[in-house]
């Protein structure tokens, strides 16, 4: 399945590509569709970082993984499967190999967070006899895309006594949904003359939350100036035990309501919210769970906050990965080894080989002008590799060296992986980064490798099932190495 092999009538020196579908057997085509269906179900329920971590933990335990705390006292041996969770927003899955940890890991890293609308710490207010939520958008969004669509509320409220209540409202058919209203075109003359980036203000992304007043029929209630806000507070207190102050220790996110769907008469695509980057999270985790060989320790790292710079104590720039690795080394340290564990950790990080599993912009026939056609990836042509991302003169990137590129090509060729390569867009058109640069600071080899998307960062993103399946197979081959 080497994409580079020349075809009849074409020069064997020229790189040839073709749709994945054409290279799959009937059985593999069915496997592709079945795998995509599992992914579609995941995408429908895991709409926040917390929900994604919970899903990954449940899948891991079903596959024989245990939390590191359950295993640490016994020590670690080759074949053990453990996981670490960081504040319910990041997770590290590890399949311990027989080779010393100082020789490094085979690592696939991805991010769990996605652009969304967050509620402000003091969100609830009323205006014009309606109850609304103030919000602060998260990540890079086109604000106009979030108007006049059904939204669901997902999140948690943590009370001072430590108890936690969840909210997941707007997904079931019988649930109410929420929305951010838009201006009718009849009166939008001034709005429509503005640039897209200025037509909708961030402070205008206020969510409609209620429209019935509290009380009624008694004079005292009707004199209350905040009856519509009060009505929502009463509902929240009845169902969740909340008061207004409890919003301060809440994390509520507004996300597009509804399940992910198949797209097209032939069901070739999966459409849904949060595929950047949960498509890579799902495929990487499933690849590790299905890993069939390899003597190197293999790991999948799923982190938070990539969309806002990888900061915070759950992002890639935190010490979560380093700390977990140190715990692994202490638990796996053989008796009599006098090498300082700190030195083993540094050697492990430096010798690790990693794929930064993140999505790439696919060629869109409606917007072809922003991509270099010779260096663009296409839907249905396999997993996409990008030697570098960044902006302008490669700022904010980690560029894989030629040696590591050759190594990954060799692994993929041996495993029959169909792949393509490209850049995020034309030079100086824009750009963006991934967690690769924050992995590379340890000295490890890193390559960006993920699934092409259409409508990236929109409330409804599109991925091709062939690329999803090939990403799973690519990550599996990489985590298995030479077997």
Automatic annotation (TrEMBL):
Please tell me the species this chain comes from: Heliomicrobium undosum
Please provide, in alphabetical order, the Gene Ontology terms of the cellular component aspect for this entry. Answer: cytoplasm
EC number(s) of the enzyme?
A: 3.4.11.-
Keyword Protease listed: yes
Give the protein's cofactors.
Zn(2+)
Which controlled-vocabulary keywords does the entry list?
Answer: Aminopeptidase, Hydrolase, Metal-binding, Metalloprotease, Protease, Zinc
**Keyword presence, Electron transport:** no
Q: What is this protein called?
A: M18 family aminopeptidase
* Coiled coil regions in record: none
Its family remark reads: Belongs to the peptidase M18 family.
- Quote the InterPro entries the UniProt record gives: Peptidase_M18, Peptidase_M18_dom2
Q: Which GO terms describe its molecular function?
A: aminopeptidase activity; metallopeptidase activity; zinc ion binding
A Pfam family matched by this chain, by name?
Answer: Peptidase_M18
Q: Name one GO biological process term.
A: proteolysis
Q: List the residue ranges of the region (Disordered).
A: 1-26
SUPFAM superfamilies reported for this sequence: Aminopeptidase/glucanase lid domain, Zn-dependent exopeptidases
> Under which main EC class is this enzyme filed?
hydrolase
């Amino acid at each position: 399945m080497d994409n580079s092999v020349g075809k009849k009538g074409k020069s064997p020196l020229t790189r040839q590509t073709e749709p994945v579908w054409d290279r799959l057997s009937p059985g593999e085509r069915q496997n592709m569709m079945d795998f995509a269906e599992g992914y579609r179900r995941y995408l429908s329920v895991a709409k926040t970082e917390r929900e994604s971590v919970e899903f990954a933990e449940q899948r891991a335990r079903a596959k024989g993984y245990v939390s590191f705390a359950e295993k640490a006292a016994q020590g670690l041996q080759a074949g053990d499967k453990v996981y670490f969770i960081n504040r319910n927003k990041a997770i590290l899955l590890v399949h311990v190999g027989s080779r010393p940890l100082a020789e490094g890991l085979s690592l696939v890293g991805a991010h769990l967070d996605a652009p969304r609308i967050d509620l402000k710490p003091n969100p609830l207010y009323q205006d014009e006899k309606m109850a609304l939520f103030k919000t602060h958008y998260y990540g890079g969004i086109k604000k106009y895309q979030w108007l006049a669509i059904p939204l669901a509320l997902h999140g948690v409220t943590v009370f001072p006594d430590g108890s936690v209540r969840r909210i997941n409202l707007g997904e079931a058919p019988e649930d109410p949904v929420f929305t951010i209203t838009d201006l009718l075109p009849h009166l939008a003359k001034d709005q429509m003359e503005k640039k897209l980036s200025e037509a909708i203000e961030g402070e205008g992304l206020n969510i409609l939350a209620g429209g019935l007043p509290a009380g009624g029929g008694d004079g005292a209630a009707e004199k209350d100036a905040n009856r519509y806000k009060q009505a929502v507070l009463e509902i929240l207190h009845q169902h969740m035990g909340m008061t207004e102050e409890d919003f301060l220790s809440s994390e509520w996110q507004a996300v597009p309501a509804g399940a992910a769907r198949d797209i097209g008469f032939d069901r070739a695509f999966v459409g849904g919210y949060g595929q950047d980057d949960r498509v890579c999270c799902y495929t990487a985790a499933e690849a590790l769970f299905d890993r069939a060989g390899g003597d190197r320790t293999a790991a999948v790292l799923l982190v938070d906050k990539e969309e806002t710079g990888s900061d915070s104590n759950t992002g890639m720039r935190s010490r979560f990965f380093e700390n977990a690795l140190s715990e692994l080394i202490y638990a796996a340290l053989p008796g009599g080894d006098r090498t300082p564990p700190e030195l083993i950790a540094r050697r492990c990080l430096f010798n690790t080989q990693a794929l930064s599993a993140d999505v790439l912009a696919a060629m869109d026939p409606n917007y072809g002008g922003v991509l270099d056609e010779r260096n663009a990836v296409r839907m249905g042509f396999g997993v996409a590799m990008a030697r570098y991302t960044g902006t302008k003169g490669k700022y904010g990137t980690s560029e894989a060296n030629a040696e590591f590129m050759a190594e990954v090509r060799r692994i993929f060729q041996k495993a029959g992986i169909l792949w393509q390569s490209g850049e995020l867009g034309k030079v100086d058109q824009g750009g963006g980064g991934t967690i690769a640069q924050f992995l590379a600071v340890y000295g490890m080899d890193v390559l960006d490798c993920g699934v092409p998307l259409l409508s990236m960062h929109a409330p409804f993103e599109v991925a091709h099932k062939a690329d999803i399946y090939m990403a799973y197979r690519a990550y599996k081959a990489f985590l298995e190495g030479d077997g």
